[in-house]
Amino acid sequence: MVSARTTADGPGRCVYSLARAARNTVRADDTFDRLLREAVPGKRVLELGCGTGWLASRVAQFGAAYVQGLDISHTRIAQAGQHEIQGLQEFQVADLAQPVEGVYDVVMGRAVLHHLDYREVLLRLSRENVREQGLMLFYEPLGSNVLMRLDHARSQDAHTPDEHPFERSDLGLAARDLRQLYPPAFQ
């Protein structure tokens, strides 16, 4: 799990913390759920890789003021659109390699970073789309997990060409990049 929070020290200042995925998936799911419940009430939320919109709907139930879900899949966005509530919960096809419009209190995603050039995307989002004192929160399965490796090997046709397993070293790279961008505020 990767978490980032901007601070009141000035525009673009961020405090980042990296948390390794819990060994117990249930515990990790509960942690992500708790962090979202604490972070989203009354906030504008951007979900990256929203798929069918199930997590965006959940975040809206947690009291978010507005949730924008983005996904590259037209099929998934069509499914998510069935749950759209204008002005509260909206969905849009978007290529996250391109800039994203809007400023949000919370930018989040679940199992999306391993589909992206996450280093570039996280840096761009932190500069352009996260409000001061905002939060970036991502839940990412680690490719070093034996079950993840088995699933990946078993279901080759279910994975996109750009997908690569997210490894612990990826967390280190993200931390280094963010530390360079926001050295005084990095924690």
Description:
By secondary structure, this protein is an alpha/beta fold. The chain has a single domain, classed as Rossmann fold, CATH 3.40.50.150. The chain contains six helices and seven strands, in the order ββαβαβαββαβαα. Helix 2 links the parallel strand 3 and strand 4. Helix 4 packs parallel to helix 6. The longest helix is centred in the first third of the chain and has 15 residues. The radius of gyration is 16 Å and the shape is globular. The N terminus is likely disordered.
Structural class: alpha/beta
Report the sheet-strand fraction.
15-25%
Mean pLDDT: 78
Q: Any guess at the CATH architecture?
A: 3-Layer(aba) Sandwich
Short summary:
The protein is of the alpha/beta class.
Topology:
Layout (H helix, E strand, L loop, with lengths): L1 E5 L7 E5 L6 H15 L4 E5 L5 H8 L4 E6 L2 H8 L7 E5 L10 E7 L7 H11 L1 E10 L6 H9 L13 H14 L6
Parallel strand pairs: 3-4, 3-6, 4-5, 6-7
Antiparallel strand pairs: 1-2, 1-7
Describe this protein with a few key phrases.
187 residues, alpha/beta, Rossmann fold, 7-stranded mixed β-sheet, 23% strand
